[in-house]
Specification:
Strand content of chain A: 5-15%
Distance between the termini of chain B: 32 Å
CATH architecture of chain A: 3-Layer(aba) Sandwich
Number of helices of chain B: 7
CATH superfamily of chain A: Class II aldolase/adducin N-terminal domain
Number of strands of chain A: 7
Number of strands of chain B: 7
Largest sheet of chain B: 7 strands, mixed
Number of helices of chain A: 8
CATH class of chain A: Alpha Beta
Order of helices and strands of chain B: HEEEHEHEHHEEHH
CATH superfamily of chain B: Class II aldolase/adducin N-terminal domain
Distance between the termini of chain A: 24 Å
Strand content of chain B: 5-15%
Structural class of chain A: alpha+beta
Shape of chain B: globular
Number of domains of chain B: 1
Oligomer: heterodimer
Number of domains of chain A: 1
CATH class of chain B: Alpha Beta
Order of helices and strands of chain A: HEEEHEHEHHEEHHH
Helix content of chain B: 25-40%
Strand order of the largest sheet of chain B: 3-2-1-4-7-6-5
Strand order of the largest sheet of chain A: 3-2-1-4-7-6-5
Helix content of chain A: 25-40%
C-alpha cells in the first residue's frame, strides 16, 4: 500500500539528489514540495545532506513549519523558509533554500546586483532582491531563519519573484513544480557565473527592458522540461 | 590501566582523525602537503599525527604519538612531518584545542599576503571572525632561511599569534585552524575555503557587507562543536569513500 503522494515523495528525493549532485546543495540546504493532498502542508526531508536523502527521510510539515506526526527525528532548523513562502505564494509548489557558492558574493556585494545577462538568467531581471536578516532582526543573529516571523520577512523580500538572495547566507528559489525549481536553481548558478565573466570582459550587449518584460507568448519562467529532467536523473545515477 | 570508555574514546579519535585526513584531502583543503592532528584522548600531553605523507593516504597504522615538544614518544624510522611543531606548540598553549589542521588551501593564500584581512562573510564561517591575523616567520625570525615551522620555538611564536582565536594565517604559506574535535576542524576548513572564495569575488565586485561582529562566533564562547544531526560529517565521509 503506497501512502498518499508516493509519486511526489519520489520526485522530491530525486530533486534532492540532483541538486546535491549538481553542486547547488552540499552538506546543507534543502528542497521541499507542497503536499499534493493538503495544500496547507509541505513535504521536506529530515535534517540530512540532500544527496543522501531517501524516501523514508521525507516528513510532513504544517503551514507553521510544525512537524506532523511524532517521528523521533531532527528537522531542518530553517523549515520556516518553506512554510512562509508557501503561505505567501499560492502559486508556488516547490521551494529550494541553498548556499550555492556562485551567488554568495552577490548576496554581500553593495556594488553589484545579481541581474540578467544570459537567457538562463533572464528571470533575474534588473536585479535579484537581497534580504538582510539584520535589517529587521538586528546584528546579533546567527543568520539562520529560525522563526516564522523571519520566514515571513524573507517571503516579503521574495515578493512575486523566482529568487531572493539572503545576505551572507544563500538564496531561496520558488517555482510551480519541483522540475521548475530544479531548473531555476541550475539557471541561477549559470547566470551568476556568466555575470562575473561578462563583467570581467568589459562593455556588454545587455538585455533590453522589452526583452525582460512579461510577454503573453512566453511561459512564466524557465523550467527543467522532460528532456532536462531525464538528463539530470541520468547524471545523478537515478535512471 | 585503561578503562573501557577511554579505550573506546581512543579508537574513536583515531578513526575520526583518519577520516579527517581523508576528507580534507578529498575536498582539496589539503593536497600532497599539510596535515591534521588530534590530542591524545587519554593523555593530554600527547598528540596523534600521521607519519609524513599525503593526508589522502593516511590509515590508522600510520598514526604516531608525539609529546608536546613535537618529538615521537618512541623512536621510529618513519619520516615525520617537519612542521609538527605547529601542533605541539598549540596543544601546549591551548588546553581547549583537541584538533589542529595546517593547510596550504589555495583560496586562503592570497589573504596571507594581501593587506585585506580574511574575515567572516558567510554564516557557515562564523568562526573566522572580523579579521584573521597573519603570522610572518621572516619578520619574527630575521635571517631564517626556511619558511617552514621547523622548530618548537617557531611553533610557539605562531601559537602566540593564534592567541585565543580559531584560525591564523602564515604569510605566503598557509593557515592553521583549530577545533574541539576532528569534525569541527573539518567543517571549519571547508567553510573557510568557501568564505575565502566568496570574499575574494565580492572584493573584486566593489564594496561588500561582511558579517557584523555580533554575527561572528565568540572564540571564548563557541557554539556546539558539531551539528546535532552531524549531517556534514556523514556527507563528507561518504564523498571521501569512507
Amino acid at each position: 500500500m503506497q501512502s498518499e503522494g508516493a509519486g511526489t515523495r519520489l520526485e522530491l528525493v530525486a530533486a534532492n539528489r540532483i541538486l546535491g549532485h549538481e553542486g547547488i546543495l552540499d552538506a546543507f540546504g534543502h528542497v521541499s514540495v507542497r503536499h499534493p493532498g493538503n495544500k496547507g502542508h509541505f513535504l521536506l526531508s529530515r535534517a540530512r545532506a540532500p544527496e543522501n536523502v531517501e524516501v523514508a527521510d521525507i516528513l510532513e510539515f504544517d503551514g507553521e513549519g510544525g512537524l506532523v506526526g511524532d517521528a523521533d527525528v531532527i528537522p531542518y532548523v530553517e523549515r520556516f523558509i518553506h512554510a512562509a513562502v508557501y503561505e505567501a505564494r499560492p502559486d508556488v509548489t516547490a521551494v529550494c533554500h541553498n548556499h550555492a557558492l556562485s551567488i554568495l558574493p552577490f548576496s554581500i556585494s553593495r556594488s553589484v546586483r545579481l541581474r540578467a545577462t544570459i537567457n538562463a538568467s533572464a528571470m533575474f531581471g534588473d536585479g535579484v532582491p537581497v534580504w538582510d536578516i539584520a535589517r529587521e532582526f538586528g546584528e546579533d543573529t546567527d543568520l539562520l531563519v529560525r522563526t516564522m516571523g523571519q520566514g515571513r520577512s524573507l517571503a516579503r523580500a521574495l515578493g512575486g519573484g523566482p529568487v531572493a538572495l539572503m545576505r551572507g547566507h544563500g538564496s531561496v528559489v520558488a517555482g510551480i513544480s519541483l522540475h521548475q525549481v530544479t531548473g531555476r536553481c541550475l539557471d541561477m548558478d549559470r547566470g551568476a557565473k556568466a555575470q562575473l565573466s561578462v563583467m570581467a570582459l568589459g562593455p556588454e550587449r545587455s538585455f533590453t527592458h522589452a526583452e525582460l518584460a512579461p510577454h503573453p507568448g512566453r511561459p512564466p519562467g524557465v523550467t527543467a522540461d522532460d528532456r532536462a529532467w531525464e538528463y539530470l536523473l541520468h547524471r545523478a545515477g537515478l535512471d | 590501566m585503561t578503562s573501557g570508555a577511554a579505550a573506546q574514546d581512543h579508537d574513536g579519535i583515531r578513526s575520526d582523525l583518519v577520516s579527517a585526513n581523508r576528507i580534507l584531502g578529498h575536498e582539496g583543503i589539503l593536497d600532497a602537503y599539510g596535515h591534521v592532528s588530534a590530542r591524545h584522548p587519554g593523555t593530554a600531553e600527547r598528540f596523534l599525527l600521521s607519519k609524513a605523507q599525503a593526508p589522502d593516504l593516511v590509515t590508522q597504522d600510520d598514526l604516531i604519538e608525539f609529546s608536546l615538544s613535537g618529538e615521537p614518544l618512541t623512536a621510529t624510522v618513519q619520516p615525520l612531518y617537519v612542521e609538527r611543531y605547529i601542533d605541539a606548540a598549540i596543544y601546549a598553549a591551548r588546553p581547549d584545542v583537541m584538533t589542529v589542521c595546517h593547510s596550504h588551501t589555495p583560496s586562503i593564500l592570497p589573504f596571507s599576503v594581501s593587506m585585506t584581512p580574511l574575515r567572516s562573510v558567510i554564516h557557515t564561517a562564523r568562526f573566522i571572525g572580523t579579521g584573521v591575523p597573519v603570522w610572518d616567520l621572516a619578520r619574527e625570525f630575521p635571517g631564517e632561511w626556511s619558511p617552514l615551522v621547523r622548530t618548537l620555538e617557531y611553533g610557539r611564536s605562531l601559537a602566540a599569534a593564534l592567541g585565543e582565536r580559531s584560525m591564523v594565517l602564515l604569510r605566503g604559506h598557509g593557515c592553521v585552524v583549530i577545533g574541539r574535535n576532528p569534525q569541527e576542524v573539518v567543517s571549519r576548513c571547508i567553510t573557510m575555503d568557501r568564505n575565502a572564495r566568496v570574499q575574494e569575488v565580492a572584493h573584486r565586485l566593489g564594496d561588500y557587507t561582511p558579517l557584523h561582529q555580533a554575527e561572528c562566533e565568540d572564540p571564548r564562547n563557541p557554539g556546539p562543536p558539531m551539528a546535532p544531526d552531524n549531517r556534514d560529517w556523514e556527507y563528507f565521509r561518504q564523498r571521501a569513500g569512507l
